[in-house]
Specification:
The chain is mainly alpha-helical. It has twelve helices and no strands.
Length: 314
């Protein structure tokens, strides 16, 4: 990862290098770039959904999603052909050795680790139960309104729980080693709200227009987590916050200072322009991906990926 700049050190995250962005371990293992992006999106969505079901604060969910993204970066990172996004219930059998299993639940490990480092730690059983529920419907990609399947399909027996727990804890170690134990993640959401206040467009108490502005700003930051451009690992949180405010203010009809106010937050015009275009492209791309996979499940385990690649080669 790129070293943090000396200025604004407390507001900086480790960023991906050019080598990490140009080559991934998955691509070296033969995973097509489009399929890799689809798996990443599905993994991020299941991480987000699991965080919601665990009633975790948004900050922790964002940190987990960033850790998930960073793990698969570069030739030295994880590969979807050896480190699956999630573990299938079929792999949780006592006949399989946990220590030699190649189904590493990176999504669950990232969320468990992010929560453990916060004021809202989760027990391994809570994490395992939530992922067992989500894995009971492999095609589910969004937060469900109500369970639509048999509760017995996501019941974790004591044996399966201990197997799942061992996999999550082992994967946590793998993620930490891959990231060189650098799990610092500054979330731009709080920065964006602070910037809105300093710009004088988020008064107290807030007006209806300022509420809309804040909501759209946070919305852009949430959607950017799923971006194919990996915005959270190539831009600092200050730049992400500024770009979200810029777009949201235009949509909400809120006038910002006529001067180049973004320079106050150490963001140049070129980065702002790139982020504006990238933010706007996120939702159309996500809709296309969901449409492409609506009739089949995106491969989130090693076995599913091998089957998908075999099917594509026929």
């Amino acid at each position: 990862m790129v070293p943090e700049p000396e200025k604004l050190l407390s507001l900086s995250n480790p960023l991906a290098t050019v080598e990490q962005l140009s080559t991934s371990s998955s691509s070296l293992n033969g995973v097509p770039a489009e399929l890799e992006s689809s798996i990443r999106l599905a993994g991020l969505e299941i991480t987000q959904t699991a965080g919601i079901l665990l009633q975790l604060p948004q900050e922790i969910i964002v940190q987990a999603m960033v850790l998930f993204t960073r793990f698969y970066l570069g030739p030295e990172g994880g590969s979807y052909r050896t480190n699956s996004a999630k573990v299938g219930l079929s792999s949780l059998t006592l006949d399989n050795s946990v220590l030699t299993s190649r189904s590493k639940d990176v999504s669950a490990a990232s969320l468990y680790m992010a929560a453990k480092l916060s004021a809202n730690p989760q027990t391994p059983r809570s994490v395992c139960n939530v992922y067992a529920y989500l894995m009971s419907e492999p095609t589910r990609r969004a937060f469900p309104k109500a369970p639509t399947n048999d509760p017995e399909s996501y019941y974790l027996s004591e044996g399966n729980y201990h197997a799942f727990r061992a996999i999550v804890l082992q994967t946590e170690i793998i993620v930490l080693r891959t990231l060189s134990f650098d799990v610092k993640t500054v979330v731009p959401h709080h920065l964006a709200l602070t910037y809105l206040q300093t710009l004088g467009v988020l008064p107290s108490p807030p007006s209806s227009k300022s509420r809309t502005l804040a909501a759209r700003t946070l919305g852009y930051l949430n959607v950017a987590l799923l971006s194919p451009q990996l915005l959270y690992v190539i831009f600092q949180p200050t730049a992400l916050a500024v770009a979200a405010i810029y777009l949201a203010s235009r949509e909400a009809g809120v006038k910002l200072p006529s001067t180049e106010w973004w320079e106050v937050y150490d963001v140049d015009r070129e980065d702002l322009g790139f982020l504006v275009v990238a933010f706007r492209s996120c939702e159309p791309w996500i809709k296309r991906e969901r449409e492409n996979w609506k009739d089949r499940k995106c491969p989130l385990t090693v076995d599913e990926l091998e089957a998908e690649m075999k099917h594509e080669s026929i």
